[in-house]
Amino acid sequence: MTTTRIILCGCHGHMGKVITSICEKRDDIKIVAGVDFQSAPASYPVYKYVTEVKEDTDVVIDFSHPSALPSLLQYSKSKCGVPLVLCTTGYSQSEVESLKEASKEIPVFYSRNMSLGINLLIELAKKAAAVLGDSFDVEIIEKHHNLKIDAPSGTALMIADAVAGVLPGDNTYMYDRHSQRKRRDKSEIGIHAVRGGTIVGEHEIIFAGNHETVSISHSAQSKDLFANGAVNAAIYMNGKKAGLYDMSALI
Q: I need a surface site. Which of 48, 129, 175, 182 has the fewest CB within 10 A?
């Protein structure tokens, strides 16, 4: 059995701790080093910057902060294209463009949601949009815990982008209906954010037509599923060539 060696960026964060726990129970993946500004005990060496890491690795998993992206891209290029699994949320459009550009030289796995179920939902939503066409109105509702900063969620936007790519014509995203006194435009895709309590993550896409409604939904019960997705993505990326990869490769 091949064991994938990983560097874990953001190793002392919540997701980093979950990934550490998962890796300790598996034989096909091993954390050789961590990266984090926080100082805390770990079963592997931890550095403040990825450029300081001395250990050899097969893949880097990042669950840290968008500001780490430039150093990660540079690290991969300096290490002959070590694959990156980018799980951090909140990238700006320019940062997304920079990682896409870098993927021409290095292997990059990027998904705004590491859940296999969510990515299956997206595939189902694309199929529904292709079948139903523009005769159905599309509305997306996402719910998260009260500590989440960004709204709408990156996952909701990922769903919207996928559906918009299938529907005919140009589509606009509508986030705030109360500020406008007008009928719903046919080209709109509504996106609505709910924040409350400890909701891990719920997403529903509604196709509303004449006298019938079709809805597809996904509910995350634990953040552990995102960590498992990242670990499986790291194993998948071991040895991959330059390019941009996402969760659809694992479905």
A: 182
Q: Classify 233 as helix, strand or coil.
A: helix
Strands (E), the chain: 4-9, 29-35, 46-47, 59-62, 84-86, 107-110, 137-144, 172-174, 188-195, 201-209, 212-220, 243-245
Q: Which residues pair with 59 in a beta bridge?
A: 6
* Tokens linked to 11: 């190793």
Among 11, 35, 13, 37, smallest CA distance to 23 is for 11
Q: What is the model's pLDDT at position 112?
A: 81
C-beta atoms surrounding 142 within 10 Å: 24
How many of the other CB atoms lie within 10 Å of CB of 119?
23
d(CA 77, CA 65): 19
Task: Report if pTM > 0.90.
Answer: no
Tokens read off for 161 = 């982008």
Report yes or no: 234 and 107 within 8 Å, Cβ to Cβ: no
Q: What is the DSSP string of 122-146?
A: HHHHHHHHHHHGGGSEEEEEEEE-T
Consecutive 10-residue averages of pLDDT for the chain (251 residues): 94 94 95 94 95 96 95 96 92 94 97 88 96 95 93 92 93 88 91 96 97 97 89 96 91 75
Residue numbers annotated as active site: 144, 148
